[in-house]
């Protein structure tokens, strides 16, 4: 099964040098597990029933005391290997296995192509697809903070990615993360994602999503201030700046005509925000 992304091609930093060296292997194990499950859910050649079975098998690794060591096929063996590897890291660090299994709930949602009827549905999806990532990093660093600001940041990062990839998600997987009720109100539909450029109705829906995402990013500003670890606080500041830049670009460009991406300048600005946060601690 081909991997669709790597840590180097993500919009936001994964296991960067700001993470202590002794924790980076844990972050990489978490990423590989998430990437494996995501690739299963996103595969255009695997039937939904098989996707669900493979994701459930990965979940059982964390629910069972005994680690399964064999699987029916090489691909399924790799599924179990990634789950077993992460389970070892989680147990060694004394972390909650729900930080892994919650992600699988989101990937099961994807495997079945469940629509998001409302903004609340989308936020609930993010609660499983994105928020566990921030909570994992916070727990891994031994931080004891209210995770509301982290959840807000992770949700904002997820939603900007959904907007960025909306056309591809629909045309390749028939998957839609845009709130259905807003689309109806704005006089648009998934069919508009197949057009060569953005329609007025779809522009209204995306801008509405970006307005709510910017509110999440305002809440996220508390996160770098709350964190004690300098590197993690700097990484949070970088992610907030990158999300703001991507939100701006998505608002002022047409993500249907062409994919809207972050620029080198955006990364430089974000790096500057990270340095400022690092030096303040």
Can you walk me through this structure?
Helix 2 packs parallel to helix 3 (74-93) and helix 12 packs antiparallel against helix 13. 40% of the residues are buried. With 281 residues, this protein is mainly alpha-helical. The chain contains 13 helices and no strands. It is globular. It starts with 20 loop residues before the first helix and ends with a helix. It has helices at residues 21-42, 48-63, 74-93, 98-111, 119-129, 131-140, 148-164, 166-173, 180-185, 200-220, 222-226, 230-252, 264-280. The model has no long low-confidence stretch (mean pLDDT 92).
SSE order and pairing:
Layout: H1 21-42, H2 48-63, H3 74-93, H4 98-111, H5 119-129, H6 131-140, H7 148-164, H8 166-173, H9 180-185, H10 200-220, H11 222-226, H12 230-252, H13 264-280
Helix pairs in contact: 1-3, 1-4, 2-3, 2-4, 4-5, 4-6, 5-7, 6-7, 7-10, 7-12, 10-12, 12-13
């Amino acid at each position: 099964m081909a991997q669709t992304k790597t840590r180097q091609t993500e919009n936001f930093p994964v296991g960067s040098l700001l993470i202590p060296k002794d924790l980076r292997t844990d972050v990489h194990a978490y990423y590989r597990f998430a990437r494996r499950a995501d690739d299963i859910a996103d595969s255009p050649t695997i039937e939904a029933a098989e996707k669900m079975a493979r994701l459930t098998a990965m979940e059982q690794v964390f629910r069972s005391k005994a680690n399964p060591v064999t699987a029916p096929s090489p691909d399924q063996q790799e599924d179990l290997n990634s789950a077993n590897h992460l389970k070892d890291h989680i147990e060694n660090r004394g972390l909650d296995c729900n930080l892994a299994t919650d992600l699988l709930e989101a990937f099961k949602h994807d495997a079945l192509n469940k629509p998001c009827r409302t903004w609340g549905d989308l936020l609930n999806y993010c609660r499983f697809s994105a928020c566990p990532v921030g909570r994992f990093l916070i727990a891994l660093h031994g931080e004891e903070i209210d995770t509301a600001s982290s959840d807000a940041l992770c949700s904002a990062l997820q939603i900007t990615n959904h907007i960025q990839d909306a056309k591809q998600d629909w045309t390749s997987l028939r998957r839609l993360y845009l709130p259905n009720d807003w689309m109806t109100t704005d006089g648009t539909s998934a069919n508009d994602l197949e057009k060569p450029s953005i329609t007025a109705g779809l522009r209204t829906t995306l801008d509405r999503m970006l307005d709510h995402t910017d509110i999440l990013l305002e809440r996220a500003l508390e996160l770098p201030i709350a964190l004690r670890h300098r590197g993690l606080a700097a990484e949070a500041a970088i992610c907030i700046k990158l999300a703001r830049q991507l939100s701006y670009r998505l608002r002022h460009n047409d993500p249907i005509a062409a994919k809207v991406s972050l620029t080198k300048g955006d990364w430089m600005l974000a790096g500057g925000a990270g340095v400022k946060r690092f030096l303040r601690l």
